[in-house]
Amino acid sequence: xxxxxxxxxxxxxxxxxxxxxxxxxxxxxxxxxxxxxxxxxxxxxxxxxxxxxxxxxxxxxxxxxxxxxxxxxxxxxxxxxxxxxxxxxxxxxxxxxxxxxxxxxxxxxxxxxxxxxxxxxxxxxxxxxxxxxxxxxxxxxxxxxxxxxxxxxxxxxxxxxxxxxxxxxxxxxxxxxxxxxxxxxxxxxxxxxxxxxxxxxxxxxxxxxxxxxxxxxxxxxxxxxxxxx
Length: 229
Prior knowledge:
Blueprint: H1 9-20, H2 24-29, H3 31-56, E1 91-96, E2 107-113, E3 116-123, H4 128-140, H5 142-149, H6 152-157, E4 159-161, H7 179-182, E5 187-193, H8 195-199, H9 203-224
Antiparallel strand pairs: 1-2, 2-3, 3-5, 4-5
């Protein structure tokens, strides 16, 4: 039995209104709507994902805690931003590696907002040590990297993205055949999908399938930084 019945249009309706009323007084007055339309469906989705995720890898966590779990906080960090609006107007869910402490760890990601949805996999802004280890593994095992990167199931859904250096990083040949990949500062892959497909209860099956499609990519990254998959 499952308690996940889909996110439904109540989620997008709330987020659309939050975009127009992004202030604490409005949010506090509508906090129960947030609980009912956003946080509780997201926690139910996370619980439903847990067994299938564990079957793909026992080292990634589907944690339904209200704070500090897979559901990313609704409050924005405005300390270093010109945009001082206090709340995020999207839903972010990260199934993070058990050894990771923050969003920079290897993981799988789900993003929902009015008008769009996507899934992600990999490592966003890894620290310099992890970045060097990934680049070194690509340099040492170019054939395996290309096999993972170009796997049909992965390539048909995902596109590599994120930031890249303009020049080659130190220690790697400027004419390296995999220069484009070695210049990457992010090792993330994204898969866009119609929002309607992400709002219903069948989204669990779709999300599990897409995580499976990206598993070899994430495994490569985990092995590169010496953590289990």
